[in-house]
Structure prediction request, 294 residues.
Amino acid sequence: MEDMDWGNQTTVTEFILVGFGDLPDLQILLFLLFLVIYMATVAGNTLIMVLVVADQHLHTPMYFFLGNLSCLETCYTSTILPRMLASFLTGDKTISVNGCLTQLYFFGALASTECYLLSVMSYDRYLAICKPLHYSSLMSTRFCLQLSAGSWLNGCLAITIFTLCVSQFIFCGPNEIDHFYCDPIPLIKLSCGDTRLSILVDFILACVFTLPPFLLTLMSYVCIIATILRIPSTSGRQKAFSTCSSHLIVVTIFYGSLMIVYMLPKVDTLRVLNKVLSLCYTVLTPLVTPSSTA
Prediction:
């Protein structure tokens, strides 16, 4: 009976991304703020990519992965900020269903890939600090290419399965997404049909594709910190820690904000906090990547 009810309703063809629309007096200020952030993010990460390619001294595994991360961060922030900037300027907050799914796919693919790249970079630092004598032989050019390619492929595979599931939904009810981008959970809730299977698929994919790289990152830094603490001289500890401190900052911001957002109770009183924390892993992480490695 429930299926008949929603089946007779008009199918939604576009969504409204509410974003920061509840702050009408600050739209121009927010536009200028995010425009500066976007320009700084793209310029900083592009500069890193150019330097890594052009400077022969930077042709090392650490900078190879950093170049990959900078490329990813440039694409990552470009899936969200340009559309957000346009909505601030024009007031048009609508996005087509296909446009929303496209944004969901690219954002999800890049976010998943970042999880893998961060774990690969932490493993690289683990080998450099904990197994320095074997580092050159273990981190060969071929192995670096395999790790990089595997990160991108796994990130794309995870979100492809999920996006295919979501694309089968019929949207016929409310069309407002109370976020500044097409976040998967609010999007699923707008579907007219039974979404329990898709939520389960989302949870399983998150566990299978993002939990292992997170655990690898965590284990790598536990070993790194334990090794650094065993170094007898203060200068030696500082030198060892300086090689991974910038990466640790990015990891902490990315995973810390991501986990808090998805662990927060989904109640109206925390809506604004949810959006602010989401800015940390969607906007702040790409911004601090070049500055933390400067």
